[in-house]
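Much of what follows relies on a compact textual record of a protein's fold. The record below shows the convention in full:
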Amino acid sequence: MQAEAQDTGKAATHPHGEFQRAGAGFACIVDAAAAGANYVPSESDCLWMGSLGIGDPAAMVAARFGAPFKTLPQPGGAVARVFVLDDRTYFVATIAGERVVALQITGPGPHPEWVFDGVGLGMSTDQLVAKLGRPMAVEALADTGGELWSYLPFPFSIELTGGKVTSIRIADEAFF
């Protein structure tokens, strides 16, 4: 328990990078000065939503949000913790092995503190395309009338409804 209390998350040991389109895929770009001479960047350096990142300890989620509104069991023994941000927006942190393995925000937006690579709720389709480019696949969502834009094999997806971003999900590859 003592070690967990001292674990301040990957922000303490990993620089905050950003995915940038590189041909048909993406590259995780990390500021070399922030990383240090011997640091080897990884995709996880770019998997941030606001101040939380994939791989952060579950204790950081609890410290930020308190008790969840509800929890939902997930495959592989993971648990999705659901937090209500306002009457139309919720945030989900999926935890496995006391680590964050997925983060999602859903709602009409905007919530500027919870963005992924400059993509936030309420952003238009044109703004999304300018930032991340076209998705690798698009799936119609019958329940919302929207679309799910997938960027696989990269572990993030975006939902759009009525030409606006309404959900953003990032995850560890094993939980995507």
